[in-house]
Amino acid sequence: GPSADAYRRQNEITVIGDNVPPPFTSFESTGFPPEVLRVVRGAGFKAPTPIQAQSWPIALRSHDIVAVAKTGSGKTLGYLLPGFMHIKRTGKNPKMGPTVLVLSPTRELATQIQDEAEKFGQSSKISCTCLYGGAQKGPQIRDLEQGVHIVVATPGRLNDIMEMGKISLNQVSYLVLDEADRMLDMGFEPQIRKILKEIPTRRQTLMYTATWPKGVRNIASEFLNKPVQVNIGRTD
Ligand code: ADP
Ligand code: MG
Questions:
Q1: Which among 44, 115, 135, 139 is least buried, having the fewest CB atoms inside 10 angstroms?
Q2: Ligand 1: does its nearest atom lie under 6 Å from the Cβ of 136?
Q3: Ligand 2 centroid to 165 CA: how many Å?
């Protein structure tokens, strides 16, 4: 409608896809549970960022998304909060393996995502662990054995733990490829492909990238199912 168009114009949002729902311009309109909105308000956030406003309604309809937006635009909560809803809706036992998998290029980014997942998910009893290199595998494997809803991982360490037979990805039904362009620049494509082979194709996939080069477009067309594309700002 006209107000959705005006909001998109004002916030430099362009969408490519059929029947794209209008953006959520306030937190109240998201339908996220009160315990999550309390934490959002406690963090001092006044309104969704443009990527959140436009990608939340799409993600909540279980559509695949490719989002092209630069850093600092609030992408983490853009995929985490719909991920929490997905976990609640599917209601799987975390002991059987994670429901949500987030792939991230570096240890630093992965731990930031885990911190955000814990901060916003704790009140909904959502559990999360982080797998990254340069640290002992034992404690990471023990966390997996406890059972967690969300695993945030760098592709290299996740591959190592897969090869040890210490993680099962057959319950994953919400997959996030965060900073996809950076993961490909770092040479993680072979590991990403091995991981994707272990995840059921019946899933929701969300891909976030700051740039939109050929390698990223190829991965998107190979592994996403009719994604809605959301671009924020001027992108190339
Ligand atoms: P990106 O992944 O796009 O680089 P982040 O998800 O790391 O961005 O978010 C950048 C910063 O903005 C973080 O400190 C985050 O807590 C904050 N943030 C996220 N959503 C909002 C919001 N709606 N309003 C204000 N700040 C937000
Ligand atoms: Mg990020």
A1: 44
A2: no
A3: 29
Distance 52 CA to ligand 1 centre (A): 9
pTM of structure: 0.97
Check pocket membership of 74 for ligand 1, CB cut-off 6 A. yes
3-state secondary structure of 107: helix
| Cβ neighbourhood burial of 46 (10 Å; 0-12, 13-18, 19+) | exposed
What confidence score (pLDDT) does residue 235 get? 52
CA of 46, closest atom in ligand 1? 24
Cβ(105) – ligand 1 distance below 6 Å: no
Residue 44 has pLDDT above 60, yes or no: yes
Q: Is the dihedral of CA 16, 21, 26, 27 positive or negative?
A: negative
Residue 157 DSSP class:
H
Cβ proximity of 216 and 209 under 8 Å: yes
Q: Which CATH number fits domain 2-232: 3.90.1180.10, 3.40.50.300, 3.40.50.1820, 2.30.30.100?
A: 3.40.50.300
From ligand 2's centre to the CA of 207, what distance in Å?
A: 11
